[in-house]
Amino acid sequence: MECWELMPKIELHAHLNGSIRNSTLLELAGGLGKGGTVVFSDVENVILKNDRSLPEVFKLFDLIHVVTTDHKTVTRITKEVIEDFASENVVYLELRTTPKRNDSKGMSKRSYMEAVLEGARAVSTVEVDLSRELVAETLAVNEMCNRTGRKKIFVRFLLSIDRRETTEAAMETVNLALEMRRLGVVGIDLSGNPVIGEWSTFLPALEFAKMQGLPITLHCGEVPNPKEIHAMLDFLPRRIGHACCFEQEEWEKLKKSKIPVEICLTSNIITETISSVDVHHFADLYKSNHPLILCTDDVGVFSTSLSAEYALASSAFGLVKREMFQLARKAIEFVFAGDEVKQQLEEIFASAA
Ligand code: 5GP
Predict the structure, then answer these.
(1) Which of 50, 89, 135, 316 to pair with 181, CA 20 to 30 A apart?
(2) DSSP state of 68
(3) Are 188 and 220 spatial neighbours (Cβ–Cβ below 8 Å)?
């Protein structure tokens, strides 16, 4: 495992609230339990359960959101999640989260995101490069790291549209992403329970985002839904996540399109969207030279890490260290950040090679 931890890695599919530490979640639930908002023993059982079906995962997210949705907690979680990824040598993290409105806490989608950014700025264990376009600042951070020898992580954000949301709510998220572009927001994600909501509800907001030049990634094919899968592939997003329930025709379309796929092995196996790692589509896509990125999805919910995903892929598909390094390095092409960041990532991988 140690060699995978030491290797520089790029994480492109990580949900903020799914990446929360179990210890933090239990501590927060304990606090709410004392206040009588939740029954702590019930919450503890859900949190500590290891195998979860996809519907159970979404029940857990509802619970996590009860426990986490105030500004201070959002800031704390963001800080911890970034520190955890940095500690295993993730050098570029694209962290996605659903901006939430919570009137009882005086929270708007914008103030939620401001709390997220505050968490990123509060990271103390590594240098965090946050801004998308402020090259001068990036160079300054680089110089400082060179001088102090401290580690650095690039962090960028994707704003998620939840499939429970209306067209208007989705549009609000896209507008927020556009307003926050200079602050490190680099794209849009569509996620949430795949059996809820219609593609046509989100399409106007996604088309608007695309028109404005915001890159988009879609959770695609987590459940069998050929009509939606075809519509999503026709939309030509910059990346898709999962691609588990594809049929022959969808595989052909995907391969022709060359849309990169964010692969989350442990998540797919625990939620039983894929029956076992031996039959995972990673193997076929890798052999076909289709663009792939190994990702975690939800390190907290699925008790994994990006290093553990690399270890699993290496052992399950017989890939040696050099091949895994190449896979990690190739992800540079698929990040949503700009060319100056890609250039710096190239340098990091070149010196690690
Ligand atoms: P948040 O957006 O609150 O930071 O992260 C948790 C949310 O991410 C969940 O409520 C859900 O909308 C989304 N999410 C996390 N994991 C998955 C997944 O495996 N599939 C889908 N479709 N959505 C997910």
Answers:
(1) 89
(2) H
(3) no
| Chain segment 186-195, per-residue pLDDT in tens | 999 999 999 9
pLDDT given for residue 135 in this prediction: 43
Q: Is 323:282 a contact under the CB 8 Å cutoff?
A: no
Q: What domains, with CATH codes, occur in the chain?
A: 2-352 (3.20.20.140)
Q: Amino acid identity of 109?
A: K
Q: Which residues are tagged catalytic? A: 222
Give pLDDT, residue 63: 84
CA of 15 to the centre of ligand 1 (A): 6
> Token pair of 13, please?
């599919």
The whole-angstrom separation of Cα 239 and Cα 233 is 10
* Ligand 1 close to Cβ of residue 38 (< 6 A): no
Q: Rounded to an integer, what distance in angstroms lies between the CA atom of residue 341 and that of residue 308?
A: 26
Q: Ligand 1 in contact with 273 (CB < 6 A)?
A: no
Q: Could you give the angle at the alpha carbon of 67 between the alpha carbons of 187 and 154, nearest 5°?
A: 30
Question: How far apart are the CA of 61 and the centre of ligand 1, in A?
Answer: 7
What percentage of the chain has pLDDT greater than the value 90?
79
Ligand 1 pocket test, candidate residues 13, 17, 52, 93, most atoms within 8 A of CB: 17
Task: Tell the residue nearest (CA) to atom 5 of ligand 1.
Answer: 17
Closest CA to 121 of 113, 130, 109: 130
Atom of ligand 1 nearest to the CA of 160: 2
3-class SS of residue 15: strand
Atom 12 (ligand 1): residue with closest C-alpha? 192
DSSP codes joined into one string, 95-120: EEE----BGGGTB-HHHHHHHHHHHH
Q: What pLDDT, on the 0 to 100 scale, is given for residue 279?
A: 96
Q: Cα separation of 84 and 86, whole Å?
A: 5
Q: CA-CA distance, 137 to 152, in Å (whole number)?
A: 13
Q: CA-CA distance, 301 to 60, in Å (whole number)? A: 8
Q: What is the ipTM of this complex?
A: 0.99
